[in-house]
Amino acid sequence: MPHLNRRQFLTLSAGAAGTVLLPRCAGNQAATLASPNVITSQAGLLNVSLMARQDRYRIGGQEGQVMSYNGQIPGTRLEARPGDTVKIRFENQLPQATNLHYHGLHIPSTGNADNIFLSIPSNETLDYEFTISNNHPAGTFYYHPHLHGTVAEQIFAGLGGIFVVRGSLDEIPEIQAAQEEFLFLKDFSLDANGQIPTPGHMELMQGREGATLTVNGQINPSFSIPTGGLLRLRIVNASAARFYRLSLEDHPLYLIATDGGAITEPVELQELLLSPGERAEVLVKGDREPKQYRLLNLPYNRSGMGMMGEIGNMGSMGMMHSMNGMGRMGNASVTQSPQLLATLVYQDEVSPIPLPKQLIPVEALPEPTNTRRIELSMAMGTSGMGAGMSMGSGMGMQFLFNGKTFDMNRVDAAVKLGTVEDWELVNSDPDRMDHPFHLHVNSFQIISRNGQPDPYPAWKDTLIVRGNETVRIRIPFQDFAGRTVYHCHILDHEDLGMMGLVEMS
């Protein structure tokens, strides 16, 4: 089993006591927001209603107004299998237009499937429908709004949910025997009036972050692990801009799946870094002293300015990281101390369950038929501002691909179905900010970082491109003709222009 060397885990101070995120219910009575409802496909059909709306919640000790799906954060968990048809009646009760994006699913980008160009006005309903292909990989996916210009606002306010495709990974005996938990990581911020604050200049530049961190809509929830058993954590970074550098006290994490599904064999990690939109699945062995352990968000600086402590040499898949180098320091996006996310509690003893030795092979892709260079950068001013952009929205900030902001009427990459392309992603941002790059519809593999081969093949749809870094990815364009997008998943950057249009034919 591959093992990545890591520094010793730090002994860290205890976090705040658990507080829950509570909705205001009828009669002013509060109900605990625990795990969301789960709707599973039946007889090949997943049929569900989703409503986007504003709600009153208590976040920590403060009541405020957020956005939710079906009155929950995260929204209703949707579970389907390859070959299933998915029908979603979507009702928009927000005071502004919105839509849905099925982040990571390999489905059409046209019609009423994963079409981010649809706009659903306030108080209107749209029926989404698509079929999950018979060969779709099992994995942890993510649905959220994607109407350009409002994406950061709506996701930061709370909108998002988990979409699961069950399949061959779930049927591996050791994984089937593991206890399963979902971790939906989401930060919040409320002003003195209980409103989501309007972002200032620096927040737009860095991407907005909230000081209150929640897991499944709760502050410091507890998860149990059977002594001797395995715990399967399926983790979604649902924040608009915050990166999570995760570490579980006194426990290694065994990575078994990334954005696009299973990897070939488990990889042992001491830390796991997830940028916005990334997902990962890990196993935890219940082989430590039976007591409580903390899941922590360790300091990480994504701003690129200055220096800070031991944050550094980022490894495979943008997620496996050897924290031995010098990090970069800059502004409020840097968390100076560990943050408590959740607590792991040992419970009943079971017969020992071993780690699986093999998972699902990651197929090698053929050599590319075409190579593109995409440069990620930032500028100030008004020239080159794309459709829907304005000075007021970003105070003159522009986030760019190849020197251009997004224009819905301009095709940035015309690709042929049935071909494989290499895209060279070059981060030339003058502030050396990390940018998570996300491609809709088609997953890819990371080939190299700064010319160094990526040692652990995996299917990804979101990856971190750090300041002054060049990452080469290989993309098979398959199955679905139509227009879709690639963009930075620091969602303020997307709204301020860092998005490109792909036409597949």
TrEMBL record:
Keywords: Metal-binding, Oxidoreductase. Residues 56-167, 197-297, 396-502 form the Plastocyanin-like domain. Pfam families: Cu-oxidase (PF00394), Cu-oxidase_2 (PF07731), Cu-oxidase_3 (PF07732). The keyword Oxidoreductase applies. The keyword Oxidoreductase applies. GO terms for molecular function: copper ion binding; oxidoreductase activity. PANTHER family: MULTI-COPPER OXIDASE, MULTICOPPER OXIDASE LPR1. This is Multicopper oxidase family protein. The lineage of its organism: Bacteria, Bacillati, Cyanobacteriota, Cyanophyceae, Oculatellales.
